């Protein structure tokens, strides 16, 4: 048996290649994990926005999960765009049934251009079924506000939100700082029930940030697959995304994708 680390993404396809499944698989590959995917929805999408969404029937999502479980157990997995309550329930019960570990939940809700990637009525299902299974939950600030029902306006609010989400069952939480005002550095706040750690970054003023959230969570997932600790995984993911935003590819005319090979060029 090979001991090649395997990472799974359960997410939506982005035809433009910058976010979703495509960002996740590129990131897994860059960090040395064999990538596998379960597709929950197909989006017609480019750097200008999301033009259409086709949800995959829940039975087909379950079949993809089963095919992987029957043959290729992942060392870690991440969830991204899950779109509906029924897909969330199917994914959650599968994770429970197979007792999959190193579960990273990126609670994707809204795309950069404003399109809804998670139905409003699915937020409760996410809180009830998936959050308690999350080893690491990675909301951005608007997502943390949705999940807690509280406004986040300062550092104290962010710490309170992290504690609240821990209370809902997520074991570790990273509230990302990308959505802080431009004059603030993009500090990501990590909480594991005991420690609050700030992961610092340097804000780059750019439109080339399509897929930052997916890429960051995928880097954490890849690092967990190769055996790193959660804190080491977040640290590498922070450097990975900083590099990916720093060396943009300038593709398309809207929010361009990040550069998934920038980290390798610098560090490997
Ligand atoms: N302009 C930026 N400069 C440097 N780092 C950034 C910038 N924007 C986001 N980041 C970092 O990228 C990662 C993803 O954060 P962000 O808050 O953007 O997630 P997200 O909102 O889920 O992504 P998206 O906005 O693409 O949906 C975090 O580590 C964050 O600190
Ligand atoms: C299929 C899909 N999944 C997720 C996102 C959000 O992207 P991100 O938050 O990483 O920019 C997206 N735009 N499309």
From TrEMBL:
**One term of GO molecular function:** phosphomethylpyrimidine kinase activity
Task: Enumerate the CDD domains for this protein.
Answer: HMPP_kinase
**GO terms for biological process?**
thiamine biosynthetic process
Tell me the InterPro entries matching this sequence: HMP/HMP-P_kinase_dom, PM/HMP-P_kinase-1, Ribokinase-like
Gene Ontology cellular-component terms for this entry are: cytosol
Instruction: Give the metabolic or biological pathway.
Output: Cofactor biosynthesis; thiamine diphosphate biosynthesis; 4-amino-2-methyl-5-diphosphomethylpyrimidine from 5-amino-1-(5-phospho-D-ribosyl)imidazole: step 3/3; Cofactor biosynthesis; thiamine diphosphate biosynthesis; 4-amino-2-methyl-5-diphosphomethylpyrimidine from 5-amino-1-(5-phospho-D-ribosyl)imidazole: step 2/3
Catalysed reaction equations from the record: 4-amino-5-hydroxymethyl-2-methylpyrimidine + ATP = 4-amino-2-methyl-5-(phosphooxymethyl)pyrimidine + ADP + H(+); 4-amino-2-methyl-5-(phosphooxymethyl)pyrimidine + ATP = 4-amino-2-methyl-5-(diphosphooxymethyl)pyrimidine + ADP
Which residue intervals define the domain Pyridoxamine kinase/Phosphomethylpyrimidine kinase in the entry? 14-259
Q: What is this enzyme's EC?
A: 2.7.1.49, 2.7.4.7
Q: Which top EC class is named for this enzyme in its record?
A: transferase
Keywords of the record, alphabetical order, are:
ATP-binding, Kinase, Nucleotide-binding, Thiamine biosynthesis, Transferase
UniProt xrefs under SUPFAM superfamilies: Ribokinase-like
Spans through the membrane: none
Record family assignment:
Belongs to the ThiD family.
Stated name of the protein: Hydroxymethylpyrimidine/phosphomethylpyrimidine kinase
State the organism named in the record: Fictibacillus solisalsi
């Amino acid at each position: 048996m090979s001991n090649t680390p395997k990472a799974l993404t359960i997410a939506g396809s982005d035809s433009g290649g910058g976010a979703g499944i495509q960002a996740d698989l590129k990131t897994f590959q860059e960090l040395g994990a064999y990538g596998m995917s379960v597709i929950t929805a197909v989006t017609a999408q480019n750097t200008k926005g999301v033009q259409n969404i086709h949800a995959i029937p829940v039975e087909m999502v379950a079949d993809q999960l089963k095919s992987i479980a029957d043959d290729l157990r992942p060392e870690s997995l991440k969830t991204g765009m899950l779109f509906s309550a029924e897909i969330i329930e199917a994914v959650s019960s599968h994770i429970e049934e197979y007792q999959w570990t190193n579960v990273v939940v990126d609670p994707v809700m809204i795309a950069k251009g404003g399109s809804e990637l998670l139905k409003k009525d699915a937020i409760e299902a996410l809180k009830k079924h998936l959050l308690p299974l999350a080893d690491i939950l990675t909301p951005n600030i608007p997502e943390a506000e949705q999940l807690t029902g509280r406004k986040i306006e300062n550092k104290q609010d962010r710490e309170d939100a992290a504690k609240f989400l821990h209370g809902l069952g997520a074991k570790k939480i990273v509230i990302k700082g990308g959505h802080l005002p431009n004059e603030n550095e993009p500090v990501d706040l990590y909480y594991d029930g005991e420690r609050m750690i700030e992961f610092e970054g340097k804000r780059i003023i750019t439109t080339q940030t399509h897929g930052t959230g997916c890429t960051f969570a995928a880097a954490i997932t890849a690092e967990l697959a190769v055996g790193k600790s959660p804190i080491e995984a977040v640290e590498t993911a922070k450097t990975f995304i900083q590099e990916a935003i720093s060396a943009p590819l300038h593709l398309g005319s809207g929010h361009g994708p990040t550069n998934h090979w920038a980290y390798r060029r610098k560090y490997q």
